């Protein structure tokens, strides 16, 4: 992304005007997940996120009052407006690789939270003299490190640790459920991304949660999140189950009725599912991914799980989103097949 001349001039003038105040303000030094050393205000009160997943965690730990701009991303906007009105009302300077620097500067942030993969945008923001804190949520270990870092930045270390402890507790249950599953017995999952013949590689979070749940992504050795494949390749992989992500263009019933897929054993055995969603899709690297991992394991190994999925869903949303759900609410959530529309304004 190239910065236009008038935007660059605006950046330089703004940076010059705020420099004396920034110099006088007390600062502290942090190290982000990418290993960058960054000076930030001792009391951070104005944060902008350009990563669509980070805002949800800041809400969970009660730090959403420090956000002045956010990227909602593929969240359910209607639910966000109702359950997270503080996020829904915020302006946006853009998301991921599409960020408006002029709008970002007008929000006067203390820092911007971005992801390690948004390389060019991160460089542009740094040139605008705004501290950029890099997170990495595509790997479970780095997701936890990112959450610890965010808690430290906003002075919510205890709240962040409470969530991390909950996450570790649930993943330990998942691990115990998967104990004893040999490599040859692991369920092999094909993830249908934006369309049925589009899948994701091992470097994506979905593949990580499949592994934690005792399964494996059939697209071993593939990288990236939107890889076009042929139907012949799917037959060669011969997955035990097909999981359509919430933003897939086809429904489960449409895939089951598609002649091109009907000879696939997983389709013949009706082992085709759509990953659930609520505020955000459960397989994305957001707090709700705990539920995505539990759901996937209960789908792959219904006889091995030692938890009640409905109770887990109700408990999660009560604890972290202050939502009281009934059994009927959960049943409706799990039944919902409405696709998520990506890249909406």
Relevant terms:
14% strand, Rossmann fold, 14 strands, alpha/beta
Secondary structure: elements and pairs:
Layout: H1 5-24, E1 27-31, E2 37-41, E3 47-49, H2 54-60, E4 67-69, H3 77-83, H4 85-88, E5 94-95, E6 98-99, H5 101-106, E7 111-115, H6 119-127, E8 132-135, H7 140-153, H8 157-178, E9 187-192, E10 198-199, H9 205-212, E11 215-217, E12 227-228, H10 231-237, E13 241-244, H11 252-257, H12 265-268, E14 272-274, H13 289-300, H14 309-321, H15 327-335
Parallel strand pairs: 3-4, 3-7, 7-8, 9-11, 9-13, 13-14
Antiparallel strand pairs: 1-2, 5-6, 10-12
3D architecture notes:
This protein is of the alpha/beta class and 345 residues long. It has two domains: 5-157, Rossmann fold (3-Layer(aba) Sandwich), CATH 3.40.50; 179-335, Nitrogenase molybdenum iron protein domain (Rossmann fold, 3-Layer(aba) Sandwich), CATH 3.40.50.1980. The protein is built from 15 helices and 14 strands. The protein has helices at residues 5-24, 54-60, 77-83, 85-88, 101-106, 119-127, 140-153, 157-178, 205-212, 231-237, 252-257, 265-268, 289-300, 309-321, 327-335, and strands at residues 27-31, 37-41, 47-49, 67-69, 94-95, 98-99, 111-115, 132-135, 187-192, 198-199, 215-217, 227-228, 241-244, 272-274. A four-stranded parallel β-sheet has the order 4-3-7-8, sandwiched between helices. Strand 1 (27-31) and strand 2 form a beta hairpin. Helix 7 (140-153) packs antiparallel against helix 8, helix 8 packs parallel to helix 13 (289-300) and helix 13 runs antiparallel to helix 14 (309-321).
């Amino acid at each position: 992304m190239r910065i236009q001349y008038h935007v660059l001039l605006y950046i330089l003038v703004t940076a010059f005007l705020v420099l004396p105040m920034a110099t006088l303000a007390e600062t502290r030094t942090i190290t982000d997940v990418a290993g960058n050393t960054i000076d930030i205000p001792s009391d951070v009160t104005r944060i902008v996120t350009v990563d669509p997943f980070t805002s949800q965690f800041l809400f969970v730990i009660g730090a959403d009052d420090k956000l002045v701009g956010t990227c909602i991303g593929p969240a359910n906007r209607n639910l966000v407006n109702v359950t997270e009105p503080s996020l829904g009302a915020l302006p946006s300077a853009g998301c991921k690789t599409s960020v408006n620097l002029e709008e970002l500067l007008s929000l006067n942030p203390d820092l911007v939270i971005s992801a390690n993969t948004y390389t060019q945008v991160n460089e542009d923001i740094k040139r605008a003299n705004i501290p950029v804190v890099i997170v990495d949520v595509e790997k479970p270990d780095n997701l936890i490190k990112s959450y610890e870092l965010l808690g430290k930045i906003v002075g919510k270390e205890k709240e962040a640790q409470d969530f991390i402890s909950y996450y570790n507790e649930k993943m330990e249950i998942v691990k115990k459920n998967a104990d004893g599953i040999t490599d040859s017995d692991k369920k092999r999952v094909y993830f249908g991304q934006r369309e049925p013949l589009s899948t994701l590689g091992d470097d994506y979070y979905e593949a990580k949660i499949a592994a934690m749940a005792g399964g494996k992504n059939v697209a071993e050795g593939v990288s990236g999140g939107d890889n076009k494949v042929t139907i012949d390749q799917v037959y060669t992989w011969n997955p035990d189950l097909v999981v359509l992500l919430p933003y897939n263009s086809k429904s489960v019933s449409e895939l089951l009725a598609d002649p091109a897929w009907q000879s696939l054993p997983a389709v013949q055995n009706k082992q085709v599912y759509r990953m659930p969603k609520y505020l955000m899709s459960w397989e994305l690297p957001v707090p709700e991914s705990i539920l995505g991992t539990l759901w996937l394991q209960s789908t792959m190994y219904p006889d091995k799980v030692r938890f009640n999925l409905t109770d887990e869903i109700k408990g999660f949303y009560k604890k972290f989103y202050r939502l009281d759900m009934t059994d009927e609410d959960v049943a409706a959530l799990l039944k919902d097949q409405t696709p998520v529309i990506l890249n909406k304004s």
